[in-house]
Amino acid sequence: MEKPGLDVSPMAVIGRLSRTALTVESRLADTFARHGLDASSFDVLATLLRSGAPYRIAPAHLAQAAMISTSAVAQGLNKLESRGLVRREMNPNDGRGTLVALTDAGKELVEKALPDHLETERAIVATLSLEEQAVLAGLLRRIDDAAGS
After folding, report:
1. Is 112 within 8 Å of 35 (Cβ atoms)?
2. Kind plus residue range of the DSSP H or E element containing 57
3. Residue 77 contacts residue 88 (beta carbons within 8 Å)
4. 3-class secondary-structure state, position 55
5. Which residues pair with 101 in a beta bridge?
6. How far is CA 35 from CA 26, 29, 77, 90, in A?
7. pLDDT digits (tens, 9 = 90+) for 4-32
8. To 10 degrees, what angle do helices 39-50 and 59-66 make?
9. 54 contact partners, CB below 8 Å, separation of at least 6
10. What pTM, to 2 d.p., does this model score?
């Protein structure tokens, strides 16, 4: 009413998107916490698991695959390494480089957390049909692309 010439309709979409993201992150955080993890630790462990045996990857590739910054990877690796969930190894193909390897304990933990994580995600999107989920994923991809440009 104060600025009748302004189209504020995008605020409804962005506001709901922001509120939904916070709610989803909170639900996922609860699931991760039950396994002694946080979102970034889970992402690192899951990325290593997805890489396949022998579950090793260069830190830069880990950051790219987990969609987190290299500084966040370094901090996260220190924490995960101190818990015995990952270890740093010399890269046999690059004498100056290192690889991050998933330990047996890390593999066991992420394999226990993964089904719970997927069930939490499934419960969140269960209100939508599979077709609606696909449409929403496509729409969110378009918004993400537009926001990034």
Report:
1. yes
2. strand 56-57
3. yes
4. coil
5. 56, 87
6. 15, 10, 17, 29
7. 889 889 999 999 999 999 999 999 999 99
8. 110
9. 101
10. 0.85
